Amino acid sequence: MTRCQSTTKEAKTNRNLLDNASNLLTNLLSGSALGSMPTAEGAVTDLFGRPLFFSLYDWFIEHGSVYRLAFGPKSFVVVSDPIVARYILRENAFSYDKGVLADILEPIMGKGLIPADLDTWKQRRRVIAPGFHSLFLEAMVKVFTNCSERTISKIESLLDNDASKGEEIELDLEAEFSSLALDIIGLGVFNYDFGSVTKESPVIKAVYGTLFEAEHRSTFYIPYWNLPLARWIVPRQRKFYGDLKVINDCLDELIRNARETREETDVEKLQQRDYSSLKDASLLRFLVDMRGADVDDRQLRDDLMTMLIAGHETTAAVLTWAVFLLAQNPSKMRKAQLEVDSILGQGKATYESIKKLEYMRLIVVESLRLYPQPPLLIRRSLKSDKLPGGYNGDGNGYEIPAGTDLFISVYNLHRSPYFWDRPNEFEPERFLVQKDSDTEGWAGFDPERSPGALYPNEIISDFAFLPFGGGPRKCVGDQFALMESTVALALLLQKFDVELRGSPDAVELVTGATIHTKNGLWCKLRRRA
Ligand code: HEM
């Protein structure tokens, strides 16, 4: 049995290596099909000197919104155009898979939504997406508030205990947001309280260890971890598999517990979407109670692991960059605080109050525009295809062969001088301005395209603003994350004035799956008068 399993694994590893080699070859041989596409020559130093997305931006300005990036024999097509992005993500979505990203994430997320093969994805997406119902989100606002209050209490007690008469403390807010987002995702997705705002635990350490490895893998384009025996020989790989086991054991226990505590009364409440009187409103409860019979525990575990990883660092990063941007714009910080004061006073955030916190919502989306998480969406073409022409003189578009690796640069789209006025400026108000419909080319924001949407999205912007992707593989947790960020930020600004400790230029960026700081976001916090 064991022998058979390991033989299958080895076969799979070898197949992956072969696939990669054959993709490489396909790209090499098919160079002529991409021949007419502008080409940027990348040097290996581009991969290490500074975040790759900066170089991708410079090449975008130089070569246009669809270009080929060649790193020696390997090449990628880089897309920075809304029409082409819309085509790949929505109009012809099933002709593309996640390519390199799936290679990286499959060992961690198994058959979770992000790396899943198409058949599994179709089945699980149908089951999971309804779990993010608006009444579930309404119930989650309490979780967002309670967890944010823990962070605030922690900051208050640090201020109380501070030697300098409790007036000001210095704190790495990125680390605090990471703990906060972990606690929220644990409670929201599987009703598990990591309690990481206040303590350390083996599970928390394992989650961070796993994220660290996922991050490291995402900066490498050669799947070294698939090499035979790597997991036994390389110490970092051994630690990674140890961490995975700790998390998997924890998730298995939660799934077992959810199955054992399934009660008909809860099922009825869930069927009526009556979350208000449920003790456990988590997504796991929904998945087990409503759809549990047709899924095995392994798949459920992969689903939970995927949401844990997908929903943690991303949200922490949004909060980090929102504070970074606000701290450099004191008048906007003040405007946000005045809004919070007038809507919340000293009270808690509710689902209804989020609807009124308009400026706060725009701050969250503007932060996502400037610092999209992840900055690149990754795809591989499953068959040969023809990309449409884009807005900026790419005329008739380009033929691409099967096996072409593509980066949709969300960072470039979001800072494109062709679609945004003052693209590098932090201006949450920009989303309120509707462009004239007779604007040449891109038609600008049109709320009519997505009536009732609380936050600007890819539909309103016709794919110029893509913080959660688009089309069938769009993020399932987008509203969860947006509301979570709005509540956490509002409650922080309700209580504290925040300033950066040093110059903004000293906050260095690093990137893997998300954009984060090199040494933390060190801020000075004071109680508000
Ligand atoms: C997919 C961004 C929070 C679960 C995605 C994608 C993006 C994204 C861009 C599409 C990836 C692609 O097309 O390749 C974000 C950001 C977040 C966030 C910026 C926070 C601000 C969350 C949360 C959850 C979540 C809170 C779960 C609770 C997922 C899942 C997918 C996904 C499961 C895969 C969807 C599919 O392929 O069907 N996310 N996400 N995300 N996200 Fe999020």
From TrEMBL:
PROSITE patterns listed in its UniProt record: CYTOCHROME_P450
Cited InterPro entries: Cyt_P450, Cyt_P450_CS, Cyt_P450_E_grp-I, Cyt_P450_sf, Cytochrome_P450_Monoox
Gene3D superfamilies in alphabetical order: Cytochrome P450
Top-rank lineage group of the source organism: Eukaryota
Signal peptide: none
Chain residues that bind heme: 475
Entry annotated with the keyword RNA-binding: no
Keyword set, alphabetical order: Heme, Iron, Metal-binding, Monooxygenase, Oxidoreductase
GO molecular function term, any single one: oxidoreductase activity, acting on paired donors, with incorporation or reduction of molecular oxygen
Cofactors (names): heme
GO CC terms: chloroplast
Similarity remark: Belongs to the cytochrome P450 family.
Protein name from the UniProt record: Uncharacterized protein
Species the sequence originates in: Spirodela intermedia (Intermediate duckweed)
